[in-house]
């Protein structure tokens, strides 16, 4: 990783933005988690929002209660304190997320917005497989489903998980976003943009490549499903999602359970240190999948 | 109770906003003109934070089904009671059966109706604000429709005398082109120096894509400093590794048509942000209409802090004045 010193900047009179790195990697994401967690523990008065993201974070504060320059000095101090990432433990969940690839609903949206795409002659999946050097779409789907992703950021709209694959950079998939954003994306679309996969919580605009549709929600405004009892948003930063390719039959069966309000994600609690992941991502991924499907 | 006879273009229940959930991707929502909203509550003697109606461009037609005190603040969409025009920024008595309607918008984009007691809808995550994108908060999570019936709440702090008004010196005047103050920064290092200067020199025109999420602006094409795109960012020079967007932040997808985010903002994404509108000026920006022109004026953080202090002081003075008048 290239040497980079964090860029701090005021966002108007209420925000501080800290960019830890211009490029995405697992280490920088863990660093952001560590800093923002410590900041939360300090519970300074006047902090309104702490928003860790992929390689940066955002703090919203009330300048009547906390001086911006003092807060900035605190953030710099916290950054020095988390130099050793092994001191933090991340407690999160391993989650099985069933996805129907090449489904009729996102396919229809893919075809509707061909004029906004880099390659109007192919589908999003064909295009992405090809530019990432895969010989078939099946192989490409396998690469996305064999290795789990870490939820590295929540945002855009409520509950949207940005997911980054737990793999070495040379193994990771990277795709451009649409040339011009779409005005429509089906709810639960499994999308990919830059090095991130996402699930769109609600129908709306979007610019990520569309590969399939998740059978299960990440946002539940009525909080009907057991996984949403505490929050209308399911994903949390640090969660580990395994996207599993399912048949239409299984997709329909899961949808029925979701609609009946009985669906519950297959998930396992997990605790790990950044070093567990960074030392050997392959081994960590293997261990995570083993645990998730152990019973 | 208040019956909605005609809903207007987009009339929603709003308050100070749903603060503290940005990290799950939930923007605050809330009144986009917080100044007009706050003064409205003061005029009818409400506790700060009582919910009001935000009306955009074309006002609704509302029938009061009980006596009460109301006020209209913000952009000038001429209000009428039983067809007779009534002044804004003034507490007005209404009687059961009275009908409030509006003429064609004269200046500004949004008016606020505050009712003594506030609009009563169930609070969600600490706020009654409507966030239509996810269909939550406010009245059934959506703009009002004909036939809806609103209940008046009990968030009154003090009794008010009808006829009480805000002195003219405190009523915001609208100058054109709109000058909106910003603090440059965030990812502004991505813009070339020429483009930074051009951004500040340009008179930007608000496009029809202007709503509570944000305003898209038309003007000049801006350029980014060439670089090998960092891993994970995406291939366009305006792309960055997806990050958080402050309320008021300005991004420039592909260097064309900057987007300035408002209270229903998308909370993050993959475009370089280059500046942030200071919070007191968000209230003014929210009154800019499609087709109007905006210039951005760069100020330092310290200057922004001073503008904020003045803004809060003005609200305190108005409150003290109105308390004295009651």
UniProtKB/TrEMBL annotation, chain A:
* All residue ranges annotated as the Carboxyltransferase domain in the record: 6-225
Q: Domain of life, per the record?
A: Bacteria
One GO molecular function term of this record is:
hydrolase activity
Alphabetical list of Gene3D superfamilies matching this protein:
3.30.1360.40, Cyclophilin-like (2.40.100.10)
Which key words are in the record? Answer: ATP-binding, Hydrolase, Nucleotide-binding
Q: Which InterPro entries match?
A: CT_C_D, Cyclophilin-like_dom_sf, PxpB
Q: Does the keyword Hydrolase apply?
A: yes
What is this protein called in UniProt? Urea carboxylase
What organism does the record attribute this protein to? Answer: Desmospora activa DSM 45169
UniProtKB/TrEMBL annotation, chain B:
Residues in coiled coil: none
Entry keywords, A to Z: ATP-binding, Hydrolase, Nucleotide-binding
Q: Does the keyword S-adenosyl-L-methionine apply?
A: no
Question: Where does the record place the Carboxyltransferase domain?
Answer: 23-315
The answer, when asked if Cytoplasm is one of the entry's keywords, is no
Q: By its UniProt entry, which InterPro entries does this protein fall under?
A: CT_A_B, Cyclophilin-like_dom_sf, PxpC
Signal peptide per UniProt: none
Molecular function in Gene Ontology: ATP binding; hydrolase activity
Name of the protein this chain belongs to: Biotin-dependent carboxylase-like uncharacterized protein
Give the originating organism: Desmospora activa DSM 45169
Q: What is the lineage of its organism?
A: Bacteria, Bacillati, Bacillota, Bacilli, Bacillales
């Amino acid at each position: 990783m290239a040497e980079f010193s964090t860029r701090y900047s005021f966002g108007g009179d209420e925000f501080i933005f800290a960019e830890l790195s211009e490029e995405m990697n697992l280490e920088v994401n863990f660093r952001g988690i560590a800093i923002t967690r410590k900041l939360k523990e300090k519970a300074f008065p006047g902090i309104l929002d702490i928003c860790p993201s992929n390689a940066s974070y955002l703090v919203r504060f009330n300048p009547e209660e906390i001086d911006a320059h003092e807060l900035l000095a605190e953030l710099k101090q916290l950054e020095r304190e988390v130099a050793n990432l092994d001191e933090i433990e991340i407690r999160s969940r391993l989650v099985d997320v069933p996805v129907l690839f090449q489904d009729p609903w996102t396919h229809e949206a893919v075809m509707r917005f061909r004029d906004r795409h880099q390659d109007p002659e192919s589908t999003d999946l064909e295009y992405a497989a090809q530019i990432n050097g895969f010989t078939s779409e099946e192989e490409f789907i396998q690469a996305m489903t064999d290795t789990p992703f870490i939820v590295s950021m929540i945002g855009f709209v409520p509950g949207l998980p940005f997911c980054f694959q737990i793999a070495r950079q040379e193994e990771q998939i990277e795709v451009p976003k649409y040339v011009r954003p779409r005005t429509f994306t089906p709810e639960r679309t499994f999308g990919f943009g830059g090095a991130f996969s996402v699930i769109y919580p609600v129908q709306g605009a979007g610019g990520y490549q569309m590969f399939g549709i998740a059978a299960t929600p990440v946002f539940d405004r009525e909080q009907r499903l057991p996984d949403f009892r505490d929050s209308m948003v399911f994903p949390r930063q640090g969660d580990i999602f395994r996207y599993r390719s399912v048949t239409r039959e299984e997709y329909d069966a899961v949808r029925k359970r979701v609609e009946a309000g009985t669906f519950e994600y297959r998930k396992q609690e997990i605790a790990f240190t950044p070093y567990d992941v960074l030392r050997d991502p392959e081994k960590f991924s293997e261990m995570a999948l083993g645990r998730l499907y152990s019973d | 109770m208040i019956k909605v006879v005609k809903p207007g273009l987009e009339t929603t229940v709003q308050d100070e906003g749903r603060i503290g959930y940005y990290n799950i991707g939930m923007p605050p929502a809330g009144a986009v003109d917080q100044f007009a909203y706050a003064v409205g509550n003061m005029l009818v003697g409400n506790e700060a934070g009582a919910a009001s109606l935000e009306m955009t461009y074309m006002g609704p037609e509302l029938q009061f089904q009980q006596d009460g005190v109301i006020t209209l603040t913000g952009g000038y969409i001429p209000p009428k009671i039983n067809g007779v025009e009534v002044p804004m920024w003034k507490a007005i008595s209404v009687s059961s059966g009275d009908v409030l309607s509006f003429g064609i918008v004269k200046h500004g984009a949004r008016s606020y109706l505050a009712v003594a007691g506030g609009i009563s809808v169930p609070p969600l995550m600490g706020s009654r604000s409507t966030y239509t994108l996810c269909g939550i908060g406010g009245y059934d999570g959506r703009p009002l429709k004909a036939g809806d019936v609103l209940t008046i709440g009990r968030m009154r702090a003090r009794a008010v005398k009808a006829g009480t008004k805000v002195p003219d010196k405190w009523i915001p005047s609208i100058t054109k082109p709109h000058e909106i103050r910003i603090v440059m920064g965030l990812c502004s290092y991505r813009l070339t120096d020429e483009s930074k200067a051009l951004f500040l020199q340009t008179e930007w025109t608000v496009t029809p894509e202007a709503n509570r999420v944000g305003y898209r602006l038309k003007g000049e094409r801006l350029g980014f400093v060439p670089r090998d795109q960092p891993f994970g960012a995406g291939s366009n020079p305006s792309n960055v590794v997806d990050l958080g967007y402050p309320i008021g932040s300005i991004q420039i997808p592909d260097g064309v048509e900057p987007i300035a985010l408002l209270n229903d903002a998308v909370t993050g994404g993959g475009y370089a942000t280059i500046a942030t509108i200071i919070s007191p000026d968000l209230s003014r920006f929210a009154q800019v209409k499609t087709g109007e022109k905006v210039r951005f004026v760069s100020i330092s953080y310290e200057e922004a802090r001073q503008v904020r202090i003045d803004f809060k002081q003005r609200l305190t003075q108005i409150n003290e004045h109105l308390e004295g008048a009651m």
